[in-house]
Amino acid sequence: MKSFVGNTIEICIATRDHKHTIEGILRFGIGPWKTYTFNPENTTNQTYRGKPSPFTMKVCFAQTQNIAYEIIQPISGPNIFDEFLDKHGEGVHHIAFDCNGIPWEERVAGFKERGFQVAQSGSWEGKCHFAYLDSEDATTTCFETILFEEGGRIL
């Protein structure tokens, strides 16, 4: 079977305290970190479980040679990160993949055809589109797909 998923570009940790998690990861030499607040003012098309739903979260990034590391701390609104933290505690939440050259709408439809619904999504500053897939039951983890528009790299 030809791979649909694309290139691995990110590993994300869900936490209740992004500053504490960054301090620990810095000890491994991963950093520097950039911290953003994703909220309804800068993140449009926010959805949760198929319905429009505003959320706010701290989102932190560090880039190594081959992969980005992300830390997410949920702040408000229904979200899959609080679900994960309540069920599993802090830890690796998802692996993210690029769009593998596939247009965004076709990419999301391709996951749905494979049985993976979008659990949460949004568009940060109109340049970074993200969709977290409801894939934990099938794969034991959440997968995310990301499309960066021209000039939309966060790091």
Q: Please tell me the CATH architecture by its name.
A: Roll
Using the coordinates above, name the CATH class: Alpha Beta
Question: Tell me about the biggest sheet?
Answer: 10 strands, mixed
For the largest beta sheet, what order do the strands appear in spatially?
2-5-6-1-7-10-9-8-3-4
Helix tally equals 4
Task: Give an account of the 3D structure.
This protein has 155 residues and is of the alpha+beta class. It has a single domain, classed as Roll (2,3-Dihydroxybiphenyl 1,2-Dioxygenase, domain 1), CATH 3.10.180.10. The protein has helices at 18-26, 80-88, 104-113, 136-139, and strands at 8-14, 34-38, 43-48, 51-52, 56-63, 68-76, 91-97, 118-124, 128-133, 142-148. The protein has a ten-stranded mixed β-sheet with strand order 2-5-6-1-7-10-9-8-3-4, with helices on both faces. It is globular and about 40 Å long. The model has no long low-confidence stretch (mean pLDDT 93). Pfam families: Glyoxalase_4. InterPro entries: Glyas_Bleomycin-R_OHBP_Dase (IPR029068). This is Glyoxalase/Bleomycin resistance protein/Dioxygenase superfamily-domain-containing protein.
Q: Which key phrases capture this entry?
A:
single chain; 4 helices; 10-stranded mixed sheet; alpha+beta; Glyoxalase/Bleomycin resistance protein/Dioxygenase superfamily-domain-containing protein; Glyas_Bleomycin-R_OHBP_Dase; 155 residues; 2,3-Dihydroxybiphenyl 1,2-Dioxygenase, domain 1
